[in-house]
Batch of 3 targets.
Target 1
Amino acid sequence: MTSIFSSTGRGLRSMRRRDALKGLVGAAACAPFIGHMRPTQAAAPDLQTIEKGYLTCAIAGDLPMTGVKDGQFIGTDVEIVGAIAERLGLKMKPALMEWAATIEAIRSGRADVMFGNMGWSKPRSEVMAITDPIYYVTRFLVQKPGKNIDSVEALKGRTMGTVTGFTPIPDMRRIPGLTELKLYDTSDAVVRDVVAGRLDTAVLDGPVLDYQIARNPAWGLTQVAMKVNPEFPVLTGRNHAVLGVNQSKCELFQALNQGIAWAWRNGINKKALEKYGLTNPAYVTPVEKPPRLGVDRDEANKIIGPMQSCRADFAAVFAN
C-alpha cells in the first residue's frame, strides 16, 4: 500500500509511511519552535514522563499537524506543543502509529501525550485527560467537484468513509438513507477511494486535506463545509482540537493545559497555523457552544469530571 500523506507532500509514494520513517521515530530532532523564552525563565519542573527529559508523542504523522521530515519532528501541533515542552524543559519524541492506536498508547502508558487535530468527544474524555483547545476545527466533506454533498440530507443514497476511531462515527452511523459507511485504517486509503470513485465522500481532518489537496491538484478533490444540523452535533458542528494525556498524570496534564493558555496569550497557536498555510480565521475563532460543556468543563471553563480533583500550579513557568 502506498502513502499519499507523506511528510514531503509529494502525493503517491512507493513505500509505506511506517517504512519511510523507520529509524527516525524516537530519534527525530525537533524543528525550531515558535517559542517565547525569557532570560529569567523559572526552572523547569521535574515532570514524570515515560523517558526522563522527553515528551513521547503518539501521532499518526499526517501533515500539516504532525510529521517527520529530514530527521525533524514538524507540524502545526508539533510547533504549539513543542513551544510548551521547551518551557517545561522537555524534548519532543515522536511515536508514529495508526490513528486508532494512539488512544490505547496513552491509556497503556506507552506515550505521554497524543495530538494531531484530535477532536474532543465524550467517550475520549472518559478514558483520557483532555486539555483545552489548541485551535478550533470545522467539519468538511471531501469529494469530487460536482457532487454537491453539503448536508446530512444530501448523503441519502451515498457512500461515505472515514478512519476508524474518528469522533463523528457515532453520528455517521445514524445518517438516514446512507447507502454504506466504510471505515479505514488510514486517511491514505480513504482518499484513494474517493479519488477512484469508490466513495462518494468522506470525513477526514480538514487541515490535512487543505494541505494535501493544494499540493496534489491532480486528485481533483474539493472540501465542502457541512451545514449545521443539531441532531448530528459532532458530525456537523465545530469542535476543539485538543491534547490527550493519561488520567494518572495529573501534573503533566496541568502543565500542558496551562501551557496552552500561555500559547494563546502569546499568539503561538496562530503563528504555527499560518506557518503551514492554515490562515482561515475559523481556526482561532472560539466555538460558540463547546460540546464539552457539562462533561469535562463547566460554563466558566473550569475542569469537571474525572480530572476535577487534579491540582498543580505552573504559573512561574508560564509567567508571560
Target 2
Amino acid sequence: MRKFLAILLVVSIVLAFAKTKVEIWSWRSQDEPVWKEVQKELNAQGKDIEIVFRAFLPTEYDSKVMMALKSGKGPDIIYSRRLPGVRTQSLIDAGLIKPLDGQVDFSNFSEGVLNNIRTGGKTYGVPFAVQVVGVFYNKKIYEKYNLQEPRSWDELVQNAKILKEHGVTPFFVPGKSAWALTMQHAIVGTSILGPCWIRRLMKGETDFLDPDWIYVNKILNDLKVYYQDNFMANTTDDLNTAFAFGQAAMVFYGIWGYGMWKQLNPEMEGNVGFFMSPPDCKCGKPWAYVFMDGALALTSNSKNPQAALDVLRFAATPKFGTIFAKVTYNIPAVKGAQMPNDPLLMEMTDVVSNHASPYVYWVGSVFVSGKPSLYQDVLSPGMQAMYAGKITPEELAKKAQDALSQWYEPLKKRLGK
C-alpha cells in the first residue's frame, strides 16, 4: 500500500507541474520563434501551457489540415486562409473550425481586417498579419550602377537591361513555386491594370480576353529574359538565399521575406529597398497589393479547447502584435502593437495606409471564392506553362476566361451563359 501511495504521490506531483499542450499548425515556418515567446508570456501570466508548433510546406499544408481534421485528428489551432476563399470556407462548411465571437475580444482589429475572416455574421479566426507584396531590391547593387526606383514599366525594364549588361542577374524568379508566379502576376497587374479596371472585371463589365489583361501576360513573358538561368527549376527557398547574398538585384516577393533575408545574411539590414510595381507610364499611379495573410482558427477537434482559447485571446492583443512584429518583421494585423524601428517596415506601414489597391484578383479576391480558382487552377499552372513556352499570353487569357466563366456570375452574364 505504501508503494502504491508513493507512486500515486509522484504521479500527482508530475500532473500538477505538467503543462497543457496546445498544438498549432502553419505554413509559415518562420513563425516558430513567435510561439516560443508567446509561451513564455503565457507562463509568466500563470497559464501552464506548452505550445507545440508544426510547419508544413505551403503547397502541402491545406491538404494535410483537411485530411487530419476530417479524420478527427489534427491540432488545436490552425493557420487559416482569408475569406472569401474555397480553402477556409470548406473548413467552415464541414464544421471543422469554430466561430470565436463572444470568446475572443476583437476590439483591437479594424472592421476591414475582420471582414476577411467573417462569414454568415460570425468570426472564424484571429487575424495575425497584414502583408504587402511588390518589388524588393538590393540597395547596394542599385547604388553601384546609379539606378533609381522606376516610375514606369519601361524604366523597370531599362534598369534590368543595365544590370544584365554588367553581368548582374536583374531578377530572381522561383519558377518551380507556382504560387509565387501567380503573386508576381498580381503584383504587376495591380499597377498596370489599376483598381478601376479590376473593379470592372469584378462587375462583369470586361473580361479576361480584354487586350489589357493579355498585355499584362505579354509584358511578364517578355520580362523573363532578365531572370536567372534555369529559373523554372528554382523555388522560393532558392530565392531567399540568392537575394540575401546579393546574387540578384530584385525579387517579386512579400515583406514576410525580410526577416529571412536578414537571418541568412545580417548585412541585409538596411540594404533592402522596396517599390510598388510601376504603372505602364509615368503619368500613372502605382498600387500595392495588400492583404490579410490569414488567421488563427480554433479547430473542432481541439483536445484542449480552453487552453487553445487562452492562446487565441492573447493573439488578439497588442502585446502579441509586438512579439510578432519583432520576431518576423511582418506587419501585425492587431492594432496598437509596437513596431521595430526599421525604415523598411515604416515604409510598409505607409504603403498599407496610403497605397493599397481597393480591388485585387489574387489572394482574398472574389476570383478565388469558387472552382476553378483564378489563383490555384489558372494562373499557378498557367504562368508556369507560359514561361516554359507551352502556351502563349493569349492562350493564358483564354484559360482564365474558360475557367471563371464556369461559375463567376458576372462573367457568365456578360458571356450570355
Target 3
Amino acid sequence: MSNAESRGRFIWHELLTTDTAAAAAFYPKVLPWRTQPSSMPGYNLWMAGQTQIGGLMALPPEAAGTPPHWLIYVGTPSVDASCSQAQGLGAKVLKAPSDIPNVGRFAVLSDPQGATFALFTPAAGAPPPGPQPPQGAFSWHELATTDVSGALRFYGELFGWRRGAGHDMGAMGVYQLFEHAGNAVGGMSNVQGPSSPPSWLSYVHVSECNRAVGAVKAAGGRLLHGPMEVPGGSWIALFMDPQGGAFAVQEAPRASQARPATAPAAAAKPPGAPKPYAPPAAVPTVKAAPAPAARPAAVTPVAAKPAAAKPAAPKKAARKARKKVARRARPGKRKAAKKSAKKSARKSARRPAKKSARRAASRGARGRRR
C-alpha cells in the first residue's frame, strides 16, 4: 500500500494503560489475540494469528492523569502536512510529528471537539499490512462527540471521509455513518451525558458476542452495554477492561436468527460493516391438498323438492289449454270440455314433479351403491 492509498485508513490501534502486564493477561482471554515483543523496549504487539493487530504500552509520563485508552492511528501521505492542516481546522497537537525507526512517522492530536487520535505515515520500504484475519481484526470505529456535523466536516477535509446514512435515535440524536472509499467504516454520535468526554471507540470482530461477554466478566472487566442486535443483524457489546480502557466487540449476523421481516429500528450503536440479511424475493407457500369431493349420504333425496315446487309454468299452460278447448267446444259440450281440460292440466302439472322425483331417487340409489 502506497502512502497515497493509506489516506483515511485506520492503520493501527494502540492500548495505553497503567498496567501492561495485567492488560496482556486480560485481552487474550476475551479476544483471539496473543502478545509478542517488538523491537522497541517496553512496546508489545497484539497478534491475531500471524497478523499484527496493534500495540501495547504504558501511559507515558506526559500523559499523567489521562485514563487508559485505545488510540487510533489514521493514515496520511504526510504527517507534517496533515498536522498543519488539522491545526488550521481547529485541532490541537498533543505530540509533535516524530519518527519511529524503520516503522514510520506519527503525531498525536485532539480534534476540535477534544477526541484524541493519531496520524501515521508508513516508512519507505515498510512491509504492507497483511490480510485481515476473519476473527480478531478491528471492524468498526465510532466517535462520540459534542458536534457531529462539525466532526464530519473536520475529518472529511482531513481524510476524505464522506457522510453516509443517518439513523435517527430520537432523544439521543442522529447516529451518522461515515464512509471511506465508498464503504461504511464507522459512525458518529452525540456524547451521552456531560461527564463523557469526546472519544473514539474501536470494535473487534469476534465469533460469539455472548462468549466475549462471559469472558470479560470472568476476567475482571465490566460490561457497559449489550449484548444487543443492531441494524443489519450484527450483535455488539461494549466493555471496560480492568484498568479502565473502553473497547467493543462485534459479531456477524446470526444466520439462524435472521428475520426476513422488517429491519429492526436503528439502535444506539449500529456497526454497519456486515450487509443486511436479504430475504428471498418470494417465499413459496405450501398449498394444502384439495379435499375429496363429498359423496352423498344414503338419505332421502331432499334435492327433489325444488323441482316439484316450481309448477308455475304447467299451471299457466293448463289455463291456456282450458280456454282454447272452451272456445272450440259447442255450447252443449263446453262443460264436459272444461272438465276434461282440468284433468289434462292436473296430469301435466304432476308430470314434472314425478319426473324430478324419479331422477332424485335414481341419484340416491347410485350414491348408496358407491
